[in-house]
Amino acid sequence: MIDIQNVSKWYGSFQVLKHCSCQVRQGEVVVVCGPSGSGKSTLIKTVNGLESVQEGKIFVNGVEVTNPKTNLTKLRSHVGMVFQHFELFPHLSIRENLVLAQMKVLKRSREEATAKGLKLLDRVGLGKQADKFPGQLSGGQQQRVAIARALAMDPICMLFDEPTSALDPEMINEVLDVMVELAHEGMTMMVVTHEMGFAKNVADRVIFLEAGEILEDSPKDEFFSNPKSDRAKHFLSKIL
Ligand code: ADP
Ligand code: MG
């Protein structure tokens, strides 16, 4: 579903990604971890073309993201992305947040978009909040709305960039629970997170990135019981 082939990227003279290759197969959950500044956000954003690359190729479901002729708007419409900061439209109600892209991008009628949005809102446990505004919800609730909004687009895969790292501790689990459910339903997911409990629970593989290099790409049991690199060992010893 996601195929990253020998990707390198520079910001000016600073090389942020170094010959990165990895795949996420359909239905797989791959967790990406690594120290701050190692290039995790940059890597995940290359998947839907939010960051361009100077070398290498990236395919999503057979479509080449790195081909300048590819219609990125169309591609992004079915690659769900959830960021650290919830990025809901603050001046729109939850209901409007849920229907806007469905109507604009997928050309769904308001009725259809509303029905779909409300069903997903219910699914993330927020069925009663449709008429509120983002600022009236907690961080955890806003992030669940952001997930529902992404799901309303019928994504073929979901990208998460530290979806719980801006949340107060007591709200982390309500967001992770939604993600675990999605994983169990077979959603293809690439997840940047330091939540190693989530990784142990639902990841198929764990990728460890450092200084722009994929130092490890292992089945999760192997990653946790016997990380190959000393850097990954050190990283795990600090966060577990
Ligand atoms: P991570 O998500 O692992 O913390 P990032 O992908 O955000 O890492 O950043 C990797 C490195 O690239 C960092 O050193 C960061 O300062 C640098 N960086 C990120 N975005 C830019 C940018 N737009 N211009 C220049 N440097 C950047
Ligand atoms: Mg980041």
From TrEMBL:
ABC transporter domain boundaries: 2-236
Iron recorded as keyword: no
Keyword Transport on entry: yes
Membrane disposition: Peripheral membrane protein
Subcellular location, record wording: Cell membrane
Record-linked CDD domains: ABC_HisP_GlnQ
GO molecular function: ATP binding
The protein, known as: Amino acid ABC transporter ATP-binding protein
Species per Swiss-Prot/TrEMBL record: Mesosutterella porci
